[in-house]
Amino acid sequence: MIISASRRTDIPAFFSDWFYNRIERGFVLVRNPMNTHQVSRISIRPEIVDCIVFWTKNPEYFIKRLHQIEMYRYYFQYTITSYGKILEPNIPSLEELIECFKRLSKTIGRKRVIWRYDPIIITDEHSINYHKEHFAMIAQQLSEHTNKCVISFVDFYKKTMKNMSKINYYTLLEDQIIDLTNSLKLISEKYNIVLTSCAEEIDLSKQGIMHGKCIDDKLIEEISGYSLEAEKDKNQRAECGCIASIDIGAYNTCPHGCLYCYANYDMNQVRSNYAQHKKDSDLLYGNITKEDKITDKKVLSCKIVQKTLFDRDLPSQFMTSKVEK
Questions:
Q1: Close Cβ partners of 317 (under 8 Å, ≥ 6 residues apart)
Q2: DSSP H helix total and E strand total for the chain
């Protein structure tokens, strides 16, 4: 089982204590976003979890406690753009984020910290040339601290367009996308960073940019030393190459307040939900009610080959294939 923590909210930035408490307890409760009274109890014991993928824009506090998850395999999808307070009102300064990225990379290794420069948005303040210049500036500073960068172009959904209503944003034509991605590719090559795309319909292979997997079985195998048997995630868009995972986050809970974010579409709801967060709760926010139905979710390890050089470092209970709760 792969844990996604989380596409729906920034757990490292805002729910660090809660996450580490759940690790100690060995399970988490997650509401079905399509049916909120359907609640899954998910085991997150180390022998079940093949990898944890963290998604964050600010893991400053979280990385101080990484020693508490040394029995897990994990890596970070770390977003650093350059929009400032216009589009990302509650994000720390670019300089702070870059320094934090470097510290994280030095702690766990550059392979396990992936830079996300996404989504790419064109506005009056953020032109194509702006992106070229700022991507180059960030790439230069991260060149010794990551192997990979993921890019994508913004998709606006009906529920999130109202958050952008006061911003003049523009849809790029295909030739403009090609121009920009050609430049980003040249910059990434200069700094020895592999550039991939995330869930893009447009084929950028002629620019040397391949469709990537944010939850990547090959990277997980490389990190863990195990072979995996994993299927494509059927709950993601057709263009998404990610393997299947279980997300333990919740929508409308991230105080970053990024205007373009698909996971936050009502800031009043975000404030309400965040106020209901308790670090000792089984749920990310709120309480179990009498209308809720809690079901134990069947979870399996995806490991198919476990006899590796890493075996000598693992407890004996890790030495079985297809571990089931």
A1: 47
A2: 8, 15
- Rounded to an integer, what distance in angstroms lies between the CA atom of residue 205 and that of residue 211? 8
Number of neighbouring beta carbons within 10 Å of residue 258: 22
Q: Where are the domains of the chain?
A: 2-318
What value does the mean pLDDT take over residues 214-218? 94
pLDDT of 320 higher than 70: no
Of 119-123, 182-186, 292-296, 303-307, least confident by mean pLDDT is 303-307
Task: With H, G, I as helix, E, B as strand and everything else as coil, classify residue 282.
Answer: coil
Which DSSP symbol is given to 206? Answer: G
CB 91 within 8 A of CB 260: no
- pLDDT tens digits along 73-122: 999 999 999 899 999 999 999 999 999 999 999 999 999 999 999 999 99
From residue 177, alpha-carbon distances to 153, 160, 200 in Å are 9, 23, 11
> Residue 110 is which amino acid?
R
Question: Would you state the structure tokens that stand for residue 130, as one six-digit string?
Answer: 């702006």
* Measured CA distances, 38 to 146, 248, 295 (Å): 39, 14, 8
DSSP H or E run through 132: helix 128-142
Structure tokens at 324: 């089931």
- Strand bridging mode 51-56 / 113-120: unpaired
